[in-house]
Amino acid sequence: MTIDFRNVMAQKSDSDLLEIVTKLKDDYQPEAVVAAQNEIEKRNLTGAQIEQTNLEIEEKEKKNHKREDEPLSAGQKMLFLIFFWGIIPWAMAGTFKADGYTKKYKDAWKFMKIGMGIFIGIPLLLILIFQFLSS
């Protein structure tokens, strides 16, 4: 099955096309990059339009960079600490990573590990204390 990159690129915004032919060209197949370049030429963008789309790309990158460093809220930390087991918190952590929230992803797993350590550690500590007191 072949992909018609012309139709795919025709659906993209100007900023998406410029991003594909500049910053993301290594992430796309060569035919897709050529189709994006052809679509840019077909749209006959002016210098002002290209400058505007470059500003949009920079704004998008700033937003993504800010997203990477966003920490978990206090409530989210407590939830991951308490509900460390099961597929739901693991899936939530995975969506953080997929959505570009790198710090949230790492913090979620950190608090799940702490929660598991507490869940296992407190009973073990109590068992040791009772054994010590009973001897």
Question: Any overview of this molecule?
Answer:
The chain is elongated. Helices cover 77% and strands 0% of the residues. The protein folds into two domains: 5-67, no CATH class; 70-134, no CATH class. With 135 residues, the chain is mainly α. It has helices at residues 5-10, 14-21, 30-43, 47-68, 74-82, 87-98, 102-134. Helix 2 (14-21) crosses helix 3 and helix 2 packs across helix 4.
Structural class: mainly alpha
Helix content: over 70%
- Summed over residues and divided by their number, the pLDDT gives a mean of 82
Shape: elongated
Helices and strands, in order, run as HHHHHHH
The helix tally amounts to 7
Radius of gyration: 25 Å
Q: Roughly what fraction of the amino acids lie in strands?
A: under 5%
What is this structure, in a nutshell?
The chain is mainly alpha-helical.
Question: Strands, helices and their partners?
Answer:
Elements: H1 5-10, H2 14-21, H3 30-43, H4 47-68, H5 74-82, H6 87-98, H7 102-134
